[in-house]
Amino acid sequence: MKRILYFLFLSPLFLNHTCKKEKIEVTEATQPARPDQVRHDWLRAANFYEMNLRQMSADGKIGGGASFYPLRTFDLGFDAIILVPVQPTGKLNRTGTLGNPYLVSDYDTVALELGGSRPLEQLIRVAKSLGMKVVLDWNAVEVAADHEWVKNQSSFLLPADNPIPESRKLNYANPSMRKAMTEAMHWWVTRFDIDGFRCIGADRVPLDFWEENRRSLEQNKKLVWLADMAKTESEGNVNMSWFSQAFDAVVQHGFNQFSREAAGLKKDAYDMAAWMRVNDSIYGNTLPQLRYQSSHGAPRGYESLEKQYGERWEPYMVLAYTLPGSLPMVASGQDLNPAQALPREEPAQLLWTDTTWQFWYRTMNRFRKEHPALWNQPGDSLQVLKLEGKNPSRVLAFRRQRDLDAVWVFVNLSDEVAYFKIPNVTLPQNPVMLFQNRLIGEPLNGYLLPPRGYVIYAER
Fold first, then answer.
1. Do both 315 and 405 map to the same domain?
2. Residue 156: closest CA among 140, 145, 172, 137
3. Nearest one of 399, 298, 396, 374 to 342, comparing CA atoms
4. Among residues 371, 394, 410, which one ends one of the domains?
5. SS3 of 261, please?
6. What is the rounded distance in angstroms from the CA atom of residue 43 to the CA atom of residue 367?
7. Which of 449, 368, 388, 458 is nearest to 413 (CA)?
8. Lowest mean pLDDT among 174-178, 196-200, 296-300
9. Which SS3 state, helix, strand or coil, does residue 16 take?
10. Given pLDDT bands bounded at 50, 70 and 90, which one contains residue 236?
């Protein structure tokens, strides 16, 4: 089991902060369902890249990107690609020029505007030849208003809740609909050798369907199942039974929500440490959690990092890479220009000429793979450091260790210089310093971190 030392609890100031926290109920009944280990070895240290193929080129087609996209993603150090739905998007009552890609009009067809099946096959083949996994986004909650099931299978649908619907919700009380859904997902596994699914709004579909569906689809191949829940951790009780047999990991919208609030200076390091404590009480150290800053699959679509975080996005991306349980997920475009927004319902193209941040993501991905202390596995140790001094609430500091490998993380979450001391802790001698960032100062008089600054040390 993981040994977690929350030294911040010793601080009266921290206790004052924690008393304000929103209560999140985790019942005893749900705790035994927490998985004891990560089901896929590769998932322990995976870095995910979310790819919206409709916005990768000027004409929206895959074309020559069938080889370039996966090769570039692999070069940056990502292990898995999540494809935003590649099926045809509904046209009836659609939102925006392109419509919502998560409302498909046909489950088992590749959109012609992407170039059809052949370039997608090549893209997946190149990615898998590099050892990468390919995961497909899947919305099993609802379909586009002009989906073939709306036209020909009315019993597959629930009554419309909107007089001019863009989508129709599916009826899971109908066994024939369930069978058709499983057959559609099976087509992608057999036809394109898909490695798994990110299931959008997973908790809006009955759990027993996911369990039965997984058993059916995994008769010949083990898949990865990512739960993109409609309800976040901050909205109430988390039912861990979803991760007993149905799902392997969760897309943690709660991290995105919390980090955006913190970037707006509504939270500080004490709040973040409290969030870590509650998160650990829910998920423990064995359930992988995909953490992101921008996502094509988020309810508001893709917003630029600068719009969400201002100049504060970088330290929170560091946390997405280093917090316990993290599987970092980066959206296509985020690695190019943090100021570019890519609304999913409108035509847009990535700014391929902007390579400023490629080195940063390549370095973070490589560092995470090289250090087992940052992986998701039983037996690791987390020590949240108690800081003292002039303004310790500005800095989140923690140390993670696995066997002889240890990583120290210091992040200034404020727009001010942070001055602090680290009592009763000896920092490593001659550590590996990521990006050559180092703490300025010494033990007796304390240290400082510049605004939004961060330091990552590794020791072995």
1. no
2. 172
3. 298
4. 371
5. helix
6. 16
7. 449
8. 296-300
9. helix
10. low
Per the domain annotation, does 270 fall within a domain?
Answer: yes
Tally of CB atoms within 10 A around 125: 15
Say how far apart CA 15 and CA 408 lie, in whole Å.
Answer: 24
Q: How far is CA 71 from the centre of its chain?
A: 21
For residue 396, what is the domain's CATH number?
Answer: 2.60.40.1180
Distance in angstroms (rounded) separating the CA atoms of residues 196 and 455: 35
Q: How far is CA 364 from CA 262, 355, 373, in A?
A: 22, 15, 14
Structure tokens at 211: 């369990």
Q: How many structural domains is the chain composed of? A: 2
**Cα-flanking dihedrals φ and ψ of residue 388, to 5°?**
-125, 175
Domain hosting 175: range is 22-371
Q: From CA 87, how far away is CA 79, in angstroms rounded?
A: 23
Does 275 share its domain with 395? no
Instruction: Give 102-147 as a 3 state SS string.
Output: CCECCCCCCCHHHCCHHHHHHHHHHHHHCCCEEEEEEECCEEECCC
pLDDT at residue 310, rounded to an integer: 85
d(C-alpha 72, C-alpha 141), whole Å: 33
| Structure tokens given for 261 | 């609030």
Give per-residue pLDDT as tens, 144-186.
999 999 999 999 999 987 777 899 999 999 999 999 999 999 9
End residue of a domain, out of 371, 392, 407: 371
